[in-house]
Structure formats: C-alpha cells, structure tokens
Amino acid sequence: MITTDVKSARSFVSDDEYAEAFELAEKTYQQVKNQTGAGSEWLGWQRILKEPNDAELEELTSHAERIREDADIFIVCGIGGSYTGAMAVIKALNPYFKNNGPEILYAGHHMSGKYLKQLMEYLQTPKEDGELKSVYLNGISKSGSTLETALAFRTIRAWMHEVYEDAADRIIATTGKEGGVMNKIVAEEGYQKYIIPDDVGGRFSVLTPVGLLPIAVAGIDIQTLYYGAVSEYEGREQDQETILEYAALRYALLKNGHALDVLTSFEPELIGFTAWIQQLLGESEGKEGKGMFPAMAGYSTDLHSIGQIIQEGRRNLIETILVAKKPISDFKVQETQGEDIDQLGYLSGRSFHQINKSALDGTVEAHTEGGVPVLKIIIEELNAQQLGKLIYFYELFTAVYVYMLDVNPFNQPGVEGYKKAMYKLLGKDV
Ligand SMILES: O=P(O)(O)OC[C@H]1O[C@](O)(CO)[C@@H](O)[C@@H]1O
C-alpha cells in the first residue's frame, strides 16, 4: 500500500482544524463509496478495478507485442488525460537515454507548427540503411474532437497513408464508444479502435486503453501495473486511514490560507507523474473559486531556481514530494584518488541515492522550518506494480478530497472558456 509521511504538514494545522477536516473527509469518503456525490456516474475508474477486463489486457498486450516487433517509432497523439498518464508511467520506467523497443514520441499535445513540421521531417528521414522508418500512430481522444489532437492526427495519418500500403493497420484510434469525429474516421478508414468507457473521464483514464496500449508498447508489463492498482483498490476498501488523513490535511491547509501545492520529486523519472497529478487535481478541484493550485517542479534542479521563493517567499504554499524508498540505482561517487582537489572527498564512495536522500531530508527540514508544510507520498520502489498503486491512490484521494470542497470532481467546465474564445477567433461555427 502507498504510505505517507505528513508530520511536517500536521504541525501547520491545529487539532481542532484537523479534527473537523477529518470528520468531513470521513463523510466524503462515504459519498465516493456509496456513489452518492455529484458526478457519481463518473466512478468507472473504480469499476474497472473491481471487475478487471483480463481479455482486454491480454489483447492490448499482444497488440503491443506485434507493434514492438515491427515499429521503429510509436506516436502517442493526445492531450491532457489522453496522454499524461502514459507519459508518466513510460518516463518513470523506461531508461533515460535509450528505449528498449520503439522510440515513443508525443504529438497532439499542443499546436506548435514548428514541432509538428520537425516531427514530420524526423519521421521522413530514412534509417541508416536507407529504409523508411516503421511508424505506428495511436490517436487518443475521448471526445474525438479536441483540436490539438485532431490537427496532429490529420497531419501524421495523411503522410502515413501516402507512404505505407498498410497504413490502416498502423493507425490505432482510442476514443469514446460513439460520437465524435474520430469515430467517423475509424468507420471510414477501418482503423483498429479501442474504447474509452463512458464512465471514465479523461484524467482518470490511464488504466484504460488510453494509457495501457502506449505503456505496453514501451515494454512495460501492463498486467503488473493494472493489478498493482487493483491491489491498492482492494486494500483501500479495508483501510481508509491514510487517504482520510491526507485529504483532511490538504483541506485544512487550504482553509488556513495555503493556496499553492508544489508537486515534486527528487527522482527525475517521477516528474511525468507530477504532471499527471497536476491535471488530476487541477481539473478536479479548481472550480467555483475554490481549490489549491497544483504546480509541478523537479528537485533538486528547481531548488536552484524556485527553491528561493519556496524557502522565503509568501507563506501560502505547501509541498508534496513523491518518494521511492528503495534505491533506484547503486551508482556511487568515485573514490578520491590522491589529493582531494575537487574537495568531494567527504562523499568518496558514497551512493548517489544516499546523497539524494540527504537532499530530500534536508529540504523537508529546511522548508518546514521556513514555514512550508511538506507531505511525502511514498512508494516502496520504482516499478510497475507500485506505480499502479500510486495511480489508484491519487484517483481515490482526488475524489474524497474534492468532495470536501463541495464541488463535482469529475467535470471541467472551465476548460471550455479558452476553446470557445479560440474557435470564435478562428471562425468556427459553434
Ligand atoms: O480526450 P479528449 O476528449 O481529446 O480530451 C483531452 C483532454 O482535454 C480536456 O477535455 C480538457 O479540454 C481534458 O479533460 C482531457 O483530458
């Protein structure tokens, strides 16, 4: 099970504030459990763990294996919840510098013409042996009509149809059961389609084909990931304490003036995960003038930039640090040879994990002393099973905590604002 260390944060909340918040968390936990809260028709992210679809997991795994055998490049084309979950898990578990399998590229997550042009040039550049690269494309959009994704999907698949006779077998669409432009394209072109269940919203969809196909293509065992989430789901049915404590604390901190949550980790691999949590919390809690702004950061890198404002700026922020307990690497500092010219002799032979851990512990101490409540969310080690657990932990936490704010965690009406204004400027009939 996922554990937490909230000693620092607890010292910023009075006993009364905590007791009141905890009582409220107990009530909203029941709303999630009994499906009585606003938007309860969107609790499919629990349903899919209660009734795992093993046949779909197997199909996705074997489809991904076929792609891995043939592909040089696999493009994940989606935005928001249609790509952050896959990216989070892939970045967390794949090597930094060389994939074990096809290169995973992302598209459809913004509207940079420069990026798309350079992506197309890269796809078109032949391999060292002069052969055309073998490209696969996964268009992912629940609504099937998000502009960023639709534009990239149009561009890439048009080129694929020009160069590959079997383009239709290389293009996969992951979308809602019916409706939306992507479904029309699938009907016309005969692409393989995976369905995003109606009762699972975009930011809760990583454990559906949205995240599972790209993650499997990246060579990650999706059964282990999925069943990690299932075990967290089953465990949380018995033991709600950690979730209630975390929800109560974040709520009490929000109420006593904390407006911003710096989501971070000392493991660069987990930065993608902070992006996933950022969307999950931000789109769920930021409504009706409420919510804490979730801001991702990467440590220790960003301690050398925003570390200053965290330590000494306006005292209205909290910090959430994702921690992996077991060392991720045994890489050590070289032994000092002869004179200690670079003055690193005191670290000679010590592991980078140990040094990084001291940076973590030192940061918690310094930030707490500086007036920043710190919460540590702890996984045992960085592997697929633990990440599956972390996914469900955060989904459940989000639902319980956001209900405390008395808003619907599962809609995102505010995102429509920019879309309407943009479409008007672009002259689209809406
Ligand atoms: O999968 P879709 O429908 O393209 O949406 C992508 C993302 O865009 C949003 O709908 C916001 O516009 C997110 O909630 C969602 O994750």
Automatic annotation (TrEMBL):
| Enzymatic reactions | alpha-D-glucose 6-phosphate = beta-D-fructose 6-phosphate
Q: Which SUPFAM superfamilies match?
A: SIS domain
Q: Name one Pfam family in it.
A: PGI
Top-rank EC class of the record's enzyme: isomerase
One GO molecular function term of this record is:
glucose-6-phosphate isomerase activity
Q: State the UniProt keywords alphabetically.
A: Cytoplasm, Gluconeogenesis, Glycolysis, Isomerase
The record's listing under Gene3D superfamilies reads: Glucose-6-phosphate isomerase like protein, domain 1 (3.40.50.10490)
Q: According to its UniProt record, in which pathway does this protein act?
A: Carbohydrate degradation; glycolysis; D-glyceraldehyde 3-phosphate and glycerone phosphate from D-glucose: step 2/4; Carbohydrate biosynthesis; gluconeogenesis
The record ties this protein, via CDD domains, to: SIS_PGI_1 (cd05015), SIS_PGI_2 (cd05016)
**Active-site residues?**
E283 (proton donor), K419
Which Enzyme Commission numbers does its entry carry? 5.3.1.9
* Annotated compartments: Cytoplasm
Q: Which InterPro entries match?
A: G6P_Isomerase (IPR001672), Phosphoglucose_isomerase_CS (IPR018189), SIS_dom_sf (IPR046348), SIS_PGI_1 (IPR035476), SIS_PGI_2 (IPR035482)
Show the PROSITE patterns listed in the entry.
Answer: P_GLUCOSE_ISOMERASE_1, P_GLUCOSE_ISOMERASE_3
- Give the family, as the similarity comment puts it: Belongs to the GPI family.
Tell me, what does this protein do in biology? Answer: Catalyzes the reversible isomerization of glucose-6-phosphate to fructose-6-phosphate.
The protein, known as: Glucose-6-phosphate isomerase
What is the scientific name of the source organism? Rhodohalobacter sulfatireducens
